[in-house]
Amino acid sequence: MPVEERLTEIAELPTTPGYAHVVTVTGRLAFVSGQVAVDAQGCVVGVDDLAAQTRQALSNLHHVMLRFGADWSDVVKFTWFVLDAREVQTIRDVRDEILRPALGNVPNPASTLVQVAALFGPDFLVEVEAVVAIPGDPSDV
Q1: Are the C-beta atoms of 127 and 60 separated by less than 8 Å?
Q2: What is the crossing angle of helices 88-103 and 50-67, to 10°?
Q3: What is the residue-averaged pLDDT of the chain?
């Protein structure tokens, strides 16, 4: 599957240091890099607040998806990285708060949650990446 595009600049997110926010491939899939709780200026949102960090990380992920005309119903799979897997219910609650309006009764995307010793910054509690099916004709992007 040849890579079609590697997007590193999105107005609502800080410029990435050496990785792409999203990669699209033939077959219209996007592999979205892990998103954390940073605002457009690169400042951490919700220090010590897992719910706030999950909301911001999902908001950043949504900005990436919207760039390609995708929405929550187009997410194929999430991968979550957390410092404390015992807090999974907080992540699920925020995920459902955000996804339920878009998905209705459709089941959530496939998901993997991994507890890690640390994330790349000391204030981060959660990171989420996704595989997204890009709707429409490949020439639309």
Answers
A1: no
A2: 40
A3: 88
9 contacts: CB under 8 Å, gap ≥ 6: 15, 16
- The partner residues of 31 in beta bridges, in order of sequence, read 23, 131
Residues 8, 21: contact at Cβ < 8 Å? yes
Tokens of 42: 């690169």
| Residues 42, 14: Cα–Cα separation, whole Å | 5
Radius of gyration of the chain (CA): 15
What 3-state DSSP class applies to 1?
Answer: coil
The tens digit of pLDDT for each residue in 30-59 reads: 999 999 999 999 999 999 999 999 999 999
pLDDT tens digit sequence for 87-119:
999 999 999 999 999 988 877 888 999 999 999
Phi, psi at residue 86, to the nearest 5°?
Answer: -65, -15
Distance separating alpha carbons of residues 130 and 30, to the nearest angstrom: 8
